[in-house]
Amino acid sequence: MGKTWEYMMADPQLRWIGPEKGVIHIASGAVNNAVWDMYARSRRKPLWKLVVDFTPEELVASAAFRYISDAITKEEALAMLKEREAGKKEREEKVRELGYPAYVTSAGWLGYTDEKVARLTKEAVAAGFNHFKMKVGADQANDLRRAKIIRSIIDDPQYLPADIPARDPSAEALRGKNAGPTGAVLMIDANQVWDVPQAIEYVKGLEEVKPWFIEEPTAPDDILGHAAIRKALKPHGIGVATGEHAHNRMVFKQLLQAEAIDVVQIDSCRLAGVSEVLSVLLMAAKFGVPVCPHAGGVGLCEYVIHLSLIDYIAVSGTMERNVLEFVDHLHEHFVTPCSINKHGRYNVPTNPDEGYSIEMHKASIAEFEWPHGSYWVGAQAAKSQA
Ligand SMILES: [Mg+2]
Q: Is there a smaller number of Cβ atoms within 10 Å at the N or the C end of the chain?
């Protein structure tokens, strides 16, 4: 699979117009993901299981190593994977039983009324979650008010489900996350709105609501900018996360080398498929930075559970500090949708025919495929009548 990836990405003529950036990289990722999906189906395994059953040699041969050997060599990756071999079976059993830890973004979108934020937060607590993310950046006073509403609910034991005890905020899994008295963690996400000095000042102003990290504080390509923000926020106990717009493994390499981030947020469709994701998982494990994939869009949750399982079982060997994004949105369009257990954790996909879990229902494609789907044709007809 590594050779297939190299064949697609290293053609000298093609490199004039990408890949490694822009829409051509995303398109290359779609092809790479489709090949992986077919590979897994042909072996009658969900994708994660195909990869964790690889030998360390097979896994290394499947990853994209071009341009990253200054951060990790194939030999180093191999040695690391061999070290993790012994515990693989046990970890697979553990995650099948417990599920993979998740967090919710659904409660804290900008533009929701305070009542809606409060209601959605209570629902998320009742569903077993203990990591919560809200959007910030439009107005600091407004952000503070909404964050205080969220904290007042997640820190209050009365809202916890009867059968789930409060987590111990001093537990190792919550170290450095600014967990409140019930072990709840708040994260904030700015979606790239600030310049570097502005990001620092704005986020300092949110210190009292104790976020674990600020996500995407500035331009996603600005590696040294992220490093400066992280350095400035460190005395305030706030970390930095990014990656949903980091468009190739070299951006992640530099973010790690520059000690610019506390959390690696890979995107399954922006990187050029599973092969490139594997190389980022390997680098993150070497640098000891947890991977918490981005999944705020249609079908992304279906993909990323596979990647986090690969990370836990075969690569980093740990899930205790990781949380995988979950958005309860549009899963009904997928043949094998992901699911969450009552402890707010992803269930492990087990259908031997689901591959990478990304097949959409034929009816959804017939309705929404641009521009000939019935939804768009109908919208056109309504427009011309108006
Ligand atoms: Mg985000």
A: C
